[in-house]
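Researcher: Let's do a round of design. I'm pasting the structure tokens now; please hold your answer until I've finished.
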């Protein structure tokens, strides 16, 4: 897809996806070098009037946890009623320290914290739709109510929650960008390559934080 022009104005929102303790170094489901996204996000966030933070928020014993399936292992693929499911270590359990947003984030002007993955039997990578692809989180309606027409996405992990969120945003009619140096991937057996290809096919554009700042200064 050709390069589009991004102009940050009142119709643009920054989405900060799942920058939580369990996804950072030493967390239960650590994304390699996941902490490196935090200073980048902190630098770009003041450029945006609208900032939305998402938070994985699973009940204990969530069915996406390998511990909920005796005999299964972490990262094993199983079939759920809504389709294939990767089984994860227990992570981001509601009310736990691991589920908390990183203290290093400085986003005092964030307007919304959206919690996802709250349903016991359905996983949720996307900030827009649960993994059954029909249960809405309500984010699209909120963005539309604010007059948002374009979103810029950052956070963890590129190949799962960031990618699913970006694809759903684009397919919902929002112009969508991902800041590549403000994201990090888990990259399980080529998942990063597949995710980037899927995002490009959906019409998602990519840029760096330096390119973003240059556009704002020009």
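Researcher: That's everything. Go ahead.
Model: Designed sequence:
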């Amino acid at each position: 897809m050709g390069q589009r022009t991004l102009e940050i104005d009142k119709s643009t929102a920054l989405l900060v996806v799942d920058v939580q303790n369990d996804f950072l170094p030493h967390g239960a489901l650590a994304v390699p070098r996941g902490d490196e996204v935090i200073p980048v996000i902190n630098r770009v966030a003041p450029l945006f009037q609208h900032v939305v933070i998402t938070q994985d928020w699973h009940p204990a014993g969530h069915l996406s946890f390998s511990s909920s399936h005796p005999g299964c292992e972490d990262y094993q693929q199983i079939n759920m009623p809504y389709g294939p499911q990767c089984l994860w270590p227990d992570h981001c359990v509601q009310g736990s320290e691991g589920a908390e947003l990183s203290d290093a984030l400085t986003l005092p002007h964030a307007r919304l914290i959206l919690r996802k993955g709250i349903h016991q039997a359905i996983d949720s990578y996307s900030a827009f739709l649960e993994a059954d692809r029909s249960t809405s989180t309500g984010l699209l309606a909120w963005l539309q109510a604010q007059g948002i027409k374009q979103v810029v996405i950052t956070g963890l992990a590129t190949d799962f929650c960031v990618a699913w969120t970006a694809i759903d945003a684009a397919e919902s009619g929002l112009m969508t960008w991902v800041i590549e140096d403000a994201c990090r991937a888990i990259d399980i057996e080529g998942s990063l390559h597949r995710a980037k290809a899927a995002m490009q096919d959906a019409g998602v554009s990519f840029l760096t934080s330096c390119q973003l700042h240059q556009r704002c200064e020009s």
